[in-house]
């Protein structure tokens, strides 16, 4: 049985109608993140200095491992951007596999580096400094990813935020691999992977906050409709 919409509802819908700008494909929006990563990979060693044991690591274990981590982080951010378009989000099993794969890549790089060039943790606050540097390096990539996601219409902002946060952390760790000389697995697990986890939590919480705000605004805009 067909029913006409209440006049007030039809009026509110009519007032809300406005032209929208089409959202670019995730691969196109990913270019902005790629440009940021390229800038970090150039500016990081230039400003912070290349790790002192870089010659001993060799080209592939230094730059090849960095590229592997960067690609793993970009895959996660690409999946986060896909979450911003209804119907393009990947299954949960795929997302879990991607998250686990990125962590495995980061740990694998650390273990291979330690096997080739063992370097114990430095004394003092070096570990905390590594954590802070990685968080600072990853935060802009996380904010950029969140901005690109919410400009679309993510059905699961928290999931997109988690993917973007972990992806940004892995990208930051790719830069860390070029500048941090410590290869001890304990250092990597606590400080490097810890920063990745914190960025992932920040992205997840930011997604929850944005979703709650969107639902609150929707309810407020329609609470007076009979």
Please supply descriptive tags for the structure shown above:
single chain, 226 residues, mainly alpha, 77% helix, disordered C terminus
- Low-confidence stretches are 222-226
What share of residues is helical? over 70%
The residue-averaged pLDDT reads 86
Question: What is the CA-CA span between the terminal residues?
Answer: 19 Å
- Contiguous helical run count: 7
Q: Secondary-structure element sequence?
A: HHHHHHH
Which sheet architecture does the biggest sheet show?
A: none
The rough form would be described as: elongated
The tally of strands reads 0
Given helix and strand content, the structural type is: mainly alpha
Computed CA radius of gyration, to the nearest angstrom: 21 Å
Number of domains: 1
What is the beta-strand fraction? under 5%
Please summarize what this structure is.
This protein is mainly α and 226 residues long. 77% of the residues lie in helices and 0% in strands. The protein has helices spanning 7-16, 26-48, 54-83, 92-116, 126-150, 157-179, 185-222.
What does this entry look like structurally?
- The protein is an all-alpha fold and 226 residues long.
- The protein has one domain.
- The chain is 77% helix and 0% strand.
- The protein contains seven helices and no strands.
Protein topology:
Blueprint: H1 7-16, H2 26-48, H3 54-83, H4 92-116, H5 126-150, H6 157-179, H7 185-222
Helix pairs in contact: 2-3, 2-5, 2-6, 3-4, 3-6, 4-6, 4-7, 5-6, 5-7, 6-7
């Amino acid at each position: 049985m067909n029913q006409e919409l209440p006049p007030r509802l039809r009026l509110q819908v009519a007032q809300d109608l406005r032209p929208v700008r089409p959202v670019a494909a995730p691969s196109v929006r990913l270019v902005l993140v790629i440009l940021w990563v390229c800038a970090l990979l150039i500016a990081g060693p230039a400003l912070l200095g290349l790790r002192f044991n870089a010659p001993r690591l060799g080209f592939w274990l230094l730059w090849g491992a960095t590229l592997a981590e960067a690609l793993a982080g970009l895959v996660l951010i690409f999946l986060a951007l896909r979450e911003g378009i209804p119907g393009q989000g990947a299954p949960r099993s795929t997302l879990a596999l991607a998250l686990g794969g990125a962590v495995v890549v980061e740990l694998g790089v650390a273990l291979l580096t330690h096997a080739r060039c063992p370097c114990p943790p430095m004394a003092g606050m070096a570990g905390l400094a590594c954590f802070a540097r990685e968080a600072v390096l990853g935060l802009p990539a996380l904010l950029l990813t969140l901005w690109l996601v919410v400009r679309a219409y993510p059905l699961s902002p928290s999931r997109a935020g988690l993917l973007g946060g972990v992806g940004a952390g892995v990208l930051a760790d790719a830069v860390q691999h070029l500048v941090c000389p410590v290869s001890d697995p304990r250092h990597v697990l606590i400080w490097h992977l810890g920063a990745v986890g914190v960025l992932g939590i920040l992205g997840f919480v930011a997604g929850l906050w944005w979703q709650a705000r969107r639902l609150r605004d929707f309810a407020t805009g329609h609470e007076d409709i009979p």
